[in-house]
Amino acid sequence: MEDQEHSAWQEALILWFGSHRKEWQLRARPKLRVNVSAEHYQIPDITLVRNEELQDQILTRPPIAVFEILSPDDRVSRLFEKLEQYKRMEIPNIILVEPAGARLHRKYVDGELIPCNEDILRLDRTEAFVNWKDVEALLASS
């Protein structure tokens, strides 16, 4: 279940990537259905896709990135199952956003959650990046 903080993070990430959409030829889409395997679909909080993939109603190829924004009611076992499905689909950037507390964001790599300790998170297989300070400034202005 989403709360105000969760949806504010969605909005801030969409605004951040939206401000770079022409430069990077990417779009950030909330709640876009992703076909992670023959029998499973997931709906990430934010999916980052190349412009040419926008004609697909349901993504069947790996997007550039998925962002999962943690909510208080997220269960760890369900979360790791979802992250593993993204990994098996070979999504190059699987990002976990911690909206509360220390706001320690993590990237899921080879079954491990790696802290994003830098202000800039460069996304693999693209020139796109996330500037966490800019995203948080967008949060403060919303």
Automatic annotation (TrEMBL):
Keyword annotations for this protein, in alphabetical order, are: Endonuclease, Hydrolase, Nuclease
| One MF term in the entry's GO annotations | endonuclease activity
Describe the location of the Putative restriction endonuclease domain by residue ranges: 4-105
Q: Name one Pfam family in it.
A: Uma2
Is Hydrolase among the key words of this record? yes
Q: Which InterPro entries match?
A: Nuclease_put_TT1808, Restrct_endonuc-II-like, Uma2
**Entries under SUPFAM superfamilies matching the protein:** Restriction endonuclease-like
Residues forming coiled coils:
none
Asked if the keyword Hydrolase belongs to this entry, the reply reads yes
What name does this protein carry? Uma2 family endonuclease
Q: Which organism is it from?
A: Silvibacterium bohemicum
